UniProtKB/TrEMBL annotation, chain A:
Signal peptide stretch: none
Major localisation: membrane
PROSITE patterns membership: ABC_TM1
Subcellular location: Cell membrane
Name of the featured protein: ABC transporter permease
Membrane topology according to the record: Multi-pass membrane protein
GO biological process: transmembrane transport
Family, similarity comment: Belongs to the binding-protein-dependent transport system permease family.
Annotated keywords: Cell membrane, Membrane, Transmembrane, Transmembrane helix, Transport
CDD domains, alphabetized: TM_PBP2 (cd06261)
Automatic annotation (TrEMBL), chain B:
The protein's name: Glutathione import ATP-binding protein GsiA
Principal EC category: translocase
Subunit structure: The complex is composed of two ATP-binding proteins (GsiA), two transmembrane proteins (GsiC and GsiD) and a solute-binding protein (GsiB).
Catalytic reaction(s) noted: glutathione(out) + ATP + H2O = glutathione(in) + ADP + phosphate + H(+)
Family: Belongs to the ABC transporter superfamily. Glutathione importer (TC 3.A.1.5.11) family.
GO CC annotations on file: plasma membrane
Keywords for this protein: ATP-binding, Cell inner membrane, Cell membrane, Hydrolase, Membrane, Nucleotide-binding, Repeat, Translocase, Transport
Enzyme Commission designation: 7.4.2.10
ABC transporter domain span: 12-253
InterPro entries xref list: AAA+_ATPase, ABC_transp_ATP-bind, ABC_transporter-like_ATP-bd, ABC_transporter-like_CS, Oligopep_ABC_C, P-loop_NTPase
Length: 298, 332
């Protein structure tokens, strides 16, 4: 048995390890991610300030004497038809919207991904049941489904969150099932089976990280849709209960006053637009930050 | 080279294994048809054949990625095909698999060090940087490799990681499914030399699967040649690779490039044409007859049996067997 001559492969030539930077740092390196990250932090600060009630004006107290005043140094964004400060209400509205969006999307992402990964990994009857169930949910227009859930449960932010979670769960199931089909058949998963790695560990440590990129990106997109849906439900009177401010409610209230007082519509609507765009930019930044091959190529 | 000493102990015993796959559109494909083979401890069995002959299926059955439809697979004296969870994990410490494609067999999101440490912790073996470094050293990589991701390594380096990962559980048997086919020729030689070293230093038992007889002969003690789900020739490496009997093996041998073209071509040269037939509808009689230059009438109807040709050398071919019988008759 001969030993083959070898071409000397420089054994020590493993490329120098580039310090793999944190996720935030990698988002920051992306221009869209940088904008998204900055604005979302700003919005979060405003929302928290609003929620804590440390703003100069009370968002709920009515001041009949100060009805429908335009933006000024005293009322930055003006007042509404009850003399309430729109800036304070918008800040609390951002809090309400973000709270519903975060809670509903977190629930949808966890439940949807568990369903999707199970369906994709195990296939067979698990896949059949999950996929048919998802098909049924998908058959309803999103807003109708949310309306149906809210009418069944009654309004209030928790119920709005549940409704939105129901609407977005199938999206997460779809998004996670597809990549799981590919990853589940990959050799590195077979390798783990041969190595004797327990199934829960394979799913958590090897399947999930490899299908997480589209899920995480979907989270930011779903957050922006959830803000829109929450606003739409509030606009229709099925979301946040007055007098708690919500961006959707403010837009709804402004219908009657916008002709004479443009600020009543403009500022809450602008807040919605900014939140949605910001989350989309952040999603963009995340997408590039999560690609393992993006940085640290030899 | 003389036979390497063997313990005589049986490490792998595969008996009458049958494996079918159901594929949509093609019906039932017979990947393995009553295959029996055994490997002694410390020996290297080379398995050779074209793609689709069932050699990868054999690897999957040996490592219990799949179970046979019938027959038995015994690893270190225990039935791996029947093992339940706890026993199976124990058996997996005895037999490990190295995959063909080093690009696909490593988790792209796991650092090398973490991947090796995970194997150790799953099997409750002492882990820590020291052991991971040792494993890397065993396969000829610097300890700093532990901090890399798979995409930062070359194909050869990745295959070394694949081998290190399999070695982490300190197995006695390593199944190597085309371990060098995806690599550049220059890197191939290094990996084969590494395997030769591991075989000699650790006394490992190998099942080395390849489509290339030229690669297998570098480290195999015994070679089994497979065609369409059956073993058609089996014997000591030098006999099978230098003076093969079965026309299919002779054709494979012809396909091995000759290092020194000045040498005469082997006298046994045979050329085979055509593709491997559809395994869903294997030919009657001898499965090789449609492509065999020696085929006779009986080859089309009667399936040849594996019969001893000389010593431990066995093959399944009517023509060669009767030629041998005639020669014996004349001599006697």
């Amino acid at each position: 048995m001969s030993v083959l001559p070898t071409v000397a492969e420089p054994m020590g030539s493993v490329p120098a390890a580039p310090g793999r930077s944190s996720l935030l740092a990698r988002i920051w390196r992306d221009r869209n991610g940088r904008i998204g990250l900055t604005v979302i932090v700003l919005l979060a600060v405003i929302a928290v300030l609003g929620a804590l009630g440390v703003l100069p004006h009370d968002p709920i107290a009515q001041h009949p004497a100060a009805r429908l005043q335009g933006p000024s140094s005293r009322y930055w964004f003006g007042t509404d038809q009850f003399g309430r400060d729109i800036a304070a209400r918008a800040a609390v509205g951002i809090w309400t919207s973000l709270r519903v969006a975060v809670v509903s999307v977190a629930a949808a992402a966890v439940i949807g991904s568990v369903l999707g990964i199970s369906a994709g990994f195990f296939g067979g009857w698990v896949d059949q049941i999950v996929s048919r169930f998802i098909d049924i949910l998908f058959a309803f227009p999103a807003i109708l489904l949310a309306l149906a859930v809210v009418s069944a449960l009654g309004n209030g932010w928790q119920n709005t969150a549940i409704a939105i979670a129901v609407v977005y769960t199938p999206i997460f199931t779809r998004v996670s099932r597809g990549p799981t089909l590919t990853v589940g058949g990959a050799e590195y998963i077979k390798a783990q089976r041969v190595l004797g790695t327990p199934l829960p560990r394979i799913l958590l440590r090897h399947v999930l990280p490899n299908v997480s990129a589209p899920i995480v990106v979907q989270v930011t997109l779903a957050l922006s849709w959830a803000i829109l849906t929450e606003s739409a439900l509030s606009f229709l009177g099925l979301g946040t209960r007055p007098p708690t401010p919500s961006l959707g409610l403010m837009v709804s209230d402004a219908r009657n006053t916008v002709a004479t007082a443009w600020w009543t519509l403009t500022f809450p609507a602008l807040a919605i637009v900014i939140a949605v765009i910001t989350l989309n930019l952040l999603g963009d930044g995340l997408r590039s930050a999560l690609d393992p091959r993006r940085d640290s190529r030899p | 080279m003389p036979d390497r000493p063997t313990s005589g102990e049986i490490a792998i015993d595969v008996r009458d294994v049958v494996k079918h796959y159901r594929t949509p559109g093609r019906g039932e494909v017979q990947a393995l048809d009553r295959v029996s083979v055994s490997v002694e401890r410390g020996q290297v069995l080379g398995v050779v054949g074209e793609s689709g002959c069932g050699k990868s299926t054999l690897a999957r059955l040996l490592t219990r990625l799949e179970r046979p439809d019938s027959g038995s697979v015994e690893i270190l004296g225990r039935r791996i095909d029947l093992a339940k969870r706890g026993e199976l994990r124990e058996l997996r410490r005895g037999i490990q698999l190295v995959f063909q494609d080093p690009y696909a067999s490593l988790d792209p999101r796991q650092r090398i060090g973490a991947a090796l440490a995970e194997v150790l912790s799953v099997h409750r073996l002492p882990s820590g940087d020291g052991r991971v470094g040792e494993l890397l050293e065993t396969v000829g990589l610097p300890p700093s490799t532990a901090g890399r991701y798979p995409h930062q390594l070359s194909g050869g380096q990745r295959q070394r990681i694949g081998i290190a990962r399999a070695l982490a559980v300190q197995p006695q048997i390593l199944v190597l499914d085309e371990p060098v086919s995806a690599l550049d020729v220059s890197v191939r030689a290094e990996i084969i030399n590494l395997l030769v070293r591991l075989r000699d230093e650790l006394g490992l038992t190998f099942v080395f699967i390849s489509h290339d007889l030229g690669v297998v002969r570098h480290l195999a003690d015994r070679i089994a040649v497979m065609y369409l789900g059956k073993i058609v020739e089996y014997g000591p490496w030098d006999v099978v690779s230098d003076t093969p009997g079965h026309p299919y093996t002779r054709a494979l041998q012809t396909a091995v490039p000759i290092a020194d073209p000045g040498l005469d071509a082997p006298p046994t040269e045979l050329v085979v044409t055509g593709e491997v037939p559809d395994a869903a509808d294997p030919p009657s009689g001898c499965r090789f007859h449609p492509r065999c230059p020696l085929a006779e009438d009986r080859c089309r109807s009667v399936e040849p049996l594996m019969l001893p040709a000389s010593g431990r050398h066995r093959l399944a071919c009517h023509v060669v067997q009767s030629e041998a019988a005639t020669a014996d008759g004349t001599n006697g």
